[in-house]
Task: structure prediction
Amino acid sequence: MQERGDASPEEIRQELRPHPMPLRGWDPVGMRPRFGTYRGLIRLLLAWVENLTGRYRQLKQIRWEQVERLVFVCHGNICRSPYAERCAARHGLAAASFGLSADRGAPADPDACRIAARRAIDLAAHRACDAADFEFKVGDLLIVMEPRQLRRLLCNLPAGGCQMTLLGLWSRPPRPHIHDPHRLSDAYWERCFDVIDTAVQSITDRILQIRHEV
Result:
């Protein structure tokens, strides 16, 4: 059985299939609406290689019965992680978020607020939290957007540790690198939030299933 987080060759082909070239700008594979930037595409390809070679196997082996809070992590805590936090909270789960290099107290990105509002998610009250100020708790599952952020977090994880995973491993199809939508097109913001939505839903389903069995 294919494990959640393992992209099949067909899923990868579908994800990379060419799109019509736009009228303005050189974008022969429709890259910008789907991957944000060419750097985003390259980082996703590298993450897929690491995933297919088993580098992320441990990140999929979550002890769900021990999870008490979902903690979403990105760079500045103004785009991806606050949206994911609110998605999880809407599902009735305890959730929090922080950024690895956050401007303490900064509001959510205006584009994040605008795109989230289309999905009935209100980010107006959000204020950014930096990793240095975040209070870790027993039972936290740290859910990171990018592999490089995961590596940085591993070097600074507090004693006692928390479980960790990549959010995109739980989306369908898997996207182990969720590129930062900051200052990018609305089309990519929508794609980014679509990936977050499916991943948070998958994680929610697993947690609720465990709680129902207990």
